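request received
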Amino acid sequence: RKEVEQDPGPFNVPEGATVAFNCTYSNSASQSFFWYRQDCRKEPKLLMSVYSSGNEDGRFTAQLNRASQYISLLIRDSKLSDSATYLCVVNPNTGNQFYFGTGTSLTVIP
Amino acid sequence: GAVVSQHPSRVICKSGTSVKIECRSLDFQATTMFWYRQFPKQSLMLMATSNEGSKATYEQGVEKDKFLINHASLTLSTLTVTSAHPEDSSFYICSAVLGQRNTIYFGEGSWLTVV
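response:
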């Protein structure tokens, strides 16, 4: 089983739609969780960390479900500019080992 | 602003030559940096972990003699692609970890084209 699994999509949604991505992880002791956004031909950029209690940043909401071992990213009121690949990253401990999802491709359609 | 800076952003080199890519941590010291490669429409693949003052740790299948990593200071790691071939053409990205939550910050990436 992979350390981190993520549906690659693609997700094609109309403007204004709500879309959610999940990312499952295998190590129940994982400590830190992140969502990154990667635009075409660019480096991944931190979108948001995922906190145990869940956290929101504008139209973006991140959730952690430790019982089922997954994190989620919810995007409300999708904009054309949200089109990108969304990558989940899991740090299983406090060290320097990280596991990456394969990325989920999102295209927001006018 | 940028936390990790990478240079050059794009480089074209002839087959058989070597090319060096630099990764710098800005305003912080990074004892560990990471090097990745990403082919078009594929996932990031970790190539190696660069350790300041010691040898890099390479992932399985990555040739250490071809991809030379030097981490001579706490703010600079370099990746040298030696005897480059067209199949080495790819997007190379470095990263460093910062903060209590061990957050990864990526450099801007370097597009290598070997002709």
